[in-house]
């Protein structure tokens, strides 16, 4: 079973983050530039303060029009962020992401240090790779019996 740590080791541990005081316009530009769907919000000490997704920005635009782009990230971010441990299985992570409808989950160690971010796409790819590997092993075993 693939762990979240294995997934991070494969995909990388780059964390794109923004300060809570930045504007939604800055966040939107960052998301576009990095081609990602969410950005981690860190306070000035580097601690996890929240997460802001494309969906959060779209909701702000729907509420206030383009004036929303001047709002601060902290006013629209999700402050109570569900995180996962690197020791969790990707299968369990996918279950949580599906049930809670989270598309991005920060990975933190037991001390709360941010280690990376996993998207639902990362998790699905890891599971598909794991299943393809299992199929290959089973195919090899059946060929040995012939």
TrEMBL record:
**Top-level taxonomic group:** Bacteria
UniProt keyword Repressor present:
no
Keywords per UniProt: CBS domain
Q: Which residues form the CBS domain?
A: 8-69, 77-133
SMART domains reported in the protein's UniProt record: CBS (SM00116)
**Name this protein carries in UniProt:** Inosine-5-monophosphate dehydrogenase
Q: Which organism is it from?
A: Skermanella stibiiresistens SB22
């Amino acid at each position: 079973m693939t762990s979240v740590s294995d997934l991070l080791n494969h995909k990388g541990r780059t964390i794109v983050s923004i300060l809570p005081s930045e504007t939604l316009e800055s966040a939107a530009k960052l998301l576009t530039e990095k081609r990602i769907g969410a950005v981690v919000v860190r306070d000035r000490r580097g601690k996890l303060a929240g997460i802001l997704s494309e969906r959060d920005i779209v909701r702000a635009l729907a509420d206030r029009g383009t004036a929303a782009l001047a709002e601060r990230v902290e006013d629209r971010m999700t402050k109570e962020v569900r995180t996962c441990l690197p020791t969790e299985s990707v299968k369990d992570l996918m279950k949580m992401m599906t049930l809670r409808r989270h598309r991005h989950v920060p990975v933190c160690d037991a001390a709360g240090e941010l280690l990376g971010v996993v998207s639902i796409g990362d998790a699905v790819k890891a599971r598909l790779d794991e299943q393809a590997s299992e199929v290959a092993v089973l195919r090899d075993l059946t060929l040995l019996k012939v």
